[in-house]
Write a structure and sequence with these properties.
alpha/beta, 6-stranded mixed β-sheet, 6-stranded parallel β-sheet, Rossmann fold, 14 helices, elongated
Length: 381
């Protein structure tokens, strides 16, 4: 099974080559739904790949809804690939979690507010939940006359590629990867991590721990990505990038003491217990950084329950924050403008709808932050 997965992973560029060639044939020959495509053998000769690779490429195209194969008759086109400029009148927003979660978290609400604030006049937004509606395909959006799509916190490169291959104008929000084929809007996690590391170093902190509410295994790479009905959609926003950039920034400054990456449930209690055990040790961490302000509050509560004072005994900081915290302390944090993220995304999408041809290359648009100096105690090195 492992050998088979590696083989499929290895032929992915060749399959994409088949997909792009077949799309080019449909466009250049102006093929309509019901028109017959060349045979497997003809495509293999035209493209310069094996019969098996052609079959796998057509597997993906059939999954996307672009072609339909009829035994003993051939492969038929099911959709026109005609890219016509159009106004953004109906926006499809796809999110991997439930609608309840989408409308509960402040940073997600801020993104939505930004989208509606800068939306073209009269634009209608249709929200799709993968958790509740299933794997929404580009073909489904086309059937509902969706002009463009924003994929919010959807972190599966092949799922995103399916939309790009279909020709749907789209923008990825709150996730950025060099492997996915769409323009994206995301936090400037590198700048935030470096700013926080420099700040702590300047205060004399030489032993800084990083506590992530996601497993450390996410650092090692993405989960399985095969274009099937069982695609893995992770709902961890850009926390993986945040984790990687923070660890790198602390290591470059030689102040990284510990990294705790644990499943969300119970992680704060584990970290707090570790700190309590080390409290009297001269090499215990003097500051802990977390993913975001929600994780910071969980950790603060667990530390205080164990008799540790924040920030006197240990300082806390959040790499990303979105709202003021009514916590009794003012934590050091990088406060991102998620409203600007939404505004940027809908503006880019409206522009993409006017020029819906596939872009020559993808571009990452990074939103900035306001650095908030909180109650962080100086330490003597």
């Amino acid at each position: 099974m492992k050998a088979q997965r590696n083989r499929l992973r290895g032929d992915r560029p060749a399959r994409q080559h088949v997909i792009h060639h077949v799309q080019a044939i449909i466009r250049e020959q102006n093929l309509r739904p019901g028109d017959l495509l060349p045979t497997y053998q003809q495509l293999a000769k035209i493209i310069g790949v094996s019969y098996v690779t052609v079959k796998r490429g057509l597997d993906d195209l059939e999954f996307q809804g672009l072609v339909r194969r009829v035994p003993s008759k051939g492969t038929f086109v099911t959709k026109e690939l005609v890219f016509l400029p159009r106004p953004l009148k109906r926006l499809g927003l796809i999110h991997p979690s439930t609608r309840e979660i989408l409308f509960s978290f402040p940073y997600l609400i801020d993104i939505l507010r930004g989208i509606t604030a800068d939306a073209p006049m009269g634009m209608d937004m249709h929200v799709f939940s993968i958790r509740e509606d299933g794997m929404v395909s580009a073909a489904q959006l086309a059937d509902e006359d969706v002009d463009g799509v924003i994929l919010l916190s959807v972190e599966n490169d092949e799922y995103l590629r399916a939309f790009a291959d279909w020709g749907t104008p789209g923008i990825v929000v709150d996730y950025c990867s060099s492997k996915q084929p769409m323009d994206c809007v995301a936090c400037d996690n590198r700048a935030a991590a470096q700013k926080m590391a420099d700040y702590l170093l300047g205060l004399g902190h030489r032993r800084v721990a990083y506590a992530s509410s996601h497993e450390q295994s996410v650092v090692k790479g993405p989960t399985r990505n095969r274009l099937t009905n069982t695609l893995m959609i992770r709902n961890s926003s850009d926390s993986r990038e945040r984790l990687e950039e923070t660890i790198l920034a602390l290591r470059e400054r030689h102040i990284l003491s510990d990294v705790w990456g644990l499943p969300f449930g119970g992680w704060a209690a584990f970290v707090a217990e570790e700190i309590r055990h080390r409290a009297s040790h001269s090499m215990h961490p003097t500051a802990i950084l977390t993913d975001n302000n929600y994780a910071l509050m969980l950790l603060k509560n667990e530390l205080q329950q164990r008799g540790l004072r924040v920030p006197e005994d240990i300082s806390l900081g959040a790499i990303a924050s979105d709202t003021e915290l009514s916590s009794g302390i003012s934590p050091t944090a990088c406060r991102f403008d998620f409203n600007a993220m939404g505004r940027t995304a809908v503006r880019l999408l409206a522009e993409r709808c006017q020029k819906p041809q596939p872009p020559a290359g993808t571009m990452a648009h990074r939103i900035g932050f306001q650095f908030m100096e909180g109650q962080t105690v100086s330490r003597v090195s």
